[in-house]
Write the structure tokens for this entry.
Amino acid sequence: MTAESVRPTPRSARAVQSLRMPAFWLLTGLLLVCGARLFTMLSTAYAKYPVATVAAVVLFGLYAVPFWLFIASMDFVEREPPLLLATAFAWGAAVATTVAIPGNQAIHDLLAKLVSPEFAAAWGSAIAGPTIEELLKGLGVIVIVLIARAQINSVLDGMVYGALVGLGFQVVEDIVYAVNAVAVAGQGDEVGPVVSTVFLRGFIAGLWSHTIFSALVGGGIAYFLVHRERSTVNRLGGALLGFAGAWLLHFLWNSPLLADGIGGGAGGVLLGLLIKGLPALVLVLSLAWLARKREATFYLAQLGAVHDPQVATAEEVATLADGRLRHRAREHAKKLVGSKGARAVRALQRAQCRYAVELSRVRDAVGLAGTGRDPVLDHQREAVLTARGRLAALGIQEALPGAHRKRRWLWWLALLLFASLLLFSAARALGGS
């Protein structure tokens, strides 16, 4: 392997290459056409229920923000480009949703003809939703791969892009459901049904809905791409397992099983939802945590192997590997010199992570340290040294956490109170519906 074969292409050159890709123009065309269809759908809803439609868009737009931030922060070591993250979200919001509507209806009609209308009414969503929607969302991840293959370097990368595709789909679908709830209520242009939908489909169903389903699909696609040391059959099996897992979880969630809950009443319905959805959430978060840990271990091993305390001390490498330690390092600097200290530590941590990723890309060609041999790598090292200098100017020599005060019980108490409030609100919404 030569240095030229692994050296990253400059940003301007990558932009020109993207414009030459058929996949880029296919993506652009689909986003424009499907975006126009989505705009027409929302305009029709707005014409009938302007207040409710605006409320649904605003509330679910705000609802998406913490989910977006959480998904993007999962990959701290190798940050994904914001434009690609937005592209994944847009695919789910515009392309997957507008194409899924006629696709799902076609499956419903087919089941009604081949089996019975009653079967289609009961099980149509459980069969059509996973089949059509997971395929469409998976295609969004594949398009990301076609236009930016270099950004998919781990299973976690695929899970991040898949989750954002699912988040886009989920937000638009929930807006549609919210407006439909207003129509079903028959009370005119009211916001009440929209708020109920936010609780039911946002905070209850949304915690284990499209976002985690498509994260599995994206992880499977990334597994096929990055594990080239394994056999083709193994890689295909990983991709199919990701899709099959998403399909099964989606099928169980859409199925009429436990639709009436356990024991009757709003509490019983809520318990049924938790039983159907909570295992899926735990499964996907566990897989994401495992993928994140493996990715961090790989990249930070490259950083630690440099053995350059100006770049990163051994203690700093250990801190980078743990999200809580990273946060505590920023908080410690903030206590010492204020917010500028926290910003300086964050800047150093991000520069160290970028350097670690760059090391992994060029290590085979330019050696372990790499300085003086590769301009891109040298640039990343200078960025680390610059961040180090700014931190030292504040009187802080290392980005390390301070003494740990065990106040974890306060966070657990706050989480318990929030969960209790959320469950109470959801139970009231279920009772009202």
